[in-house]
Design goal:
By secondary structure, this protein is mainly β. It has a single domain, classed as Hexapeptide repeat proteins (UDP N-Acetylglucosamine Acyltransferase, domain 1, 3 Solenoid). It has 1 helix and 20 strands. The termini are close together.
């Protein structure tokens, strides 16, 4: 399968083993995709002014935009976009220069902005806006615009965070087997 990637300033995306990337995806520049991950239709990931790292077994669903913050005098490191392992990013999300830990579900249409840090085991509800430089504590559901910490996650929700990633690993394996 041809990878829909583009080099920028001599840096090309790096794709791990057993990864599914839909034909309509565009990965540009310094983008790293971990093993067993999947990038679905119409995703744009632009690692042009900083880097993007997507961990293992994570899935970025249709229509999502991934970008970064450039380095500047006021922010010498800028803000890369770091997505941990076993993360599910729902349809049509926007992640910009933020850090997501492991076992996170980002609901459809959510926006996570520059400098935000999402600890492990977090559920971000659909349509939620996480403002710049906020820290989302492990083990909670966050909802709203701007987001609020709604409640602790239930045991079944905690289990679903990992199961969602497993479901997408199985689905991308089916797509790879079909030669899609």
């Amino acid at each position: 399968m041809q990878q829909p990637t583009t080099s920028f300033k001599g840096i090309s995306p790096r794709i791990g083993n057993n990864v599914y990337i839909a034909d309509s995806v565009r990965l540009v520049g310094e983008v790293e995709v971990g093993d067993d991950s999947s990038i679905w239709h119409m995703v744009a990931a632009r690692g042009d002014v900083n880097y993007i790292k997507i961990g293992a077994r994570s899935n970025i669903q249709d229509g999502t935009i991934l970008h970064v913050t450039r380095k500047s005098a006021g922010n010498p490191d800028g803000n890369p976009l770091i997505i941990g392992d076993d993360v599910t990013v729902g349809h049509k999300c926007m992640l910009h220069g933020c850090t997501l830990g492991n076992r996170i579900l980002v609901g459809m249409g959510a926006i996570v902005m520059d400098g935000a840090i999402v600890e492990d085991d977090v559920f971000i509800g659909a349509g939620t806006l996480v403002p710049p430089n906020k820290r989302l504590e492990s083990g909670y559901l966050y909802v709203g615009n701007p987001m609020i910490q709604k409640r602790p996650l239930k045991e079944a929700e905690m289990a679903f965070l990992k199961q969602s990633a497993i479901n997408y690993v199985e689905l991308k394996d089916d797509y790879l087997a079909e030669g899609a």
